[in-house]
Amino acid sequence: MRPVHQPPAIVALGGGHGLFATLSAARRLSRDVTAVVTVADDGGSSGRLRAELGVIPPGDLRMALAALAADDPEVQDWTDTIQHRFGGIGALAGHSVGNLILAGLTEVLGDPVAALDELARLLRINGRVLPMSPIALDIEADVQGLEADPRVSRCIRGQVAVATTPGKVRRVRLLPANPPACPDAVRAIDVADMVVLGPGSWFSSVIPHVLVPELLDTLIATAARKVLVLNLAPEPGETAGFSTERHLHVLSQHAPELTVDFVVVDSGSVPPGREREHLARAAGQFQARVVYADVSEHGTHTHHAGKLASVLEQLWSDPDAGSRGSEVAGTPEERESASWQ
């Protein structure tokens, strides 16, 4: 592990907008950032390309590339282009340009990781974007509340179906079971200084990472400082009605041997009192310290990149900055970040 006076090698795991927020924060702290991205999306442009071409779904990978792209003006045009989504009603309607580029590069180069590295080179990314598995995966969930008897579970399949179910998700699985991990992702976690899991769609973007056996084994064994970032609020569908502590319980149920060092919680989402006591006990399942901080965009359920970066920087440079259940003190950088809103 690098000395704390040097920027850490950071690995961020997740998918979608949650991972975009983490990467936007991590890149402020270090030039050595690796994204490990879920590959179970079966909706929209990603789902169509997956079904038609047999590629791993590119949408979340594209968003991670955009989050880490260089700020140079000439690169910004490319970033805007890969994020551009075609309109109209024809065959291209709804497709993102970046999804098509990744699908094409994968066919030309014969390897999704090589395709990601090539597009990362074009975007002048210092780190890497990697899939959590080299093959496309499916999510299957046990859901209660869809039958007349609320105690009866129904099995539903597909990331979109899980994310939008009106029932209560109890457990998720990956298909095929025990899928392979991307070897480069395993190596990145193994040598990382800091690993960040979450925020994001809990059952479809966060928990899938611990369902890939080799990824979980490496997460358990790594000497990296491990940080779990909780969502700012329950999501309609898969975590509707969940308390903050419930998010920890279900993650622990899926990965009972996983430990983390810190659980980052937005101080405004969990007021002082009994709920924080319950959360501290739930974090004990991971042997983790709960750290409260203002990490939200004002008036939204979105993480603020500058505020989250400030917290991650403190947890790297001064891991004792937040004692169990306490607030992380605001730094000048965090206060400056707040003024950007």
From TrEMBL:
Pfam families, per database record: CofD (PF01933)
Matching SUPFAM superfamilies: CofD-like (SSF142338)
CDD domains: YvcK_like
Main location: cytoplasm
Keywords on record: Cytoplasm
Cell location: Cytoplasm
InterPro entries: CofD, CofD-like_dom_sf, Gluconeogen_factor
Composition-biased stretches (Basic and acidic residues): 332-341
Biological process terms in GO annotation: regulation of cell shape
Origin: domain of life: Bacteria
Molecular function as annotated in GO: LPPG:FO 2-phospho-L-lactate transferase activity
Region of interest (Disordered), ranges: 318-341
PANTHER family: GLUCONEOGENESIS FACTOR-RELATED, UNCHARACTERIZED PROTEIN YVCK-RELATED
Family: Belongs to the gluconeogenesis factor family.
Role summary: Required for morphogenesis under gluconeogenic growth conditions.
Protein name in UniProt: Putative gluconeogenesis factor
Origin species: Rhodococcus opacus
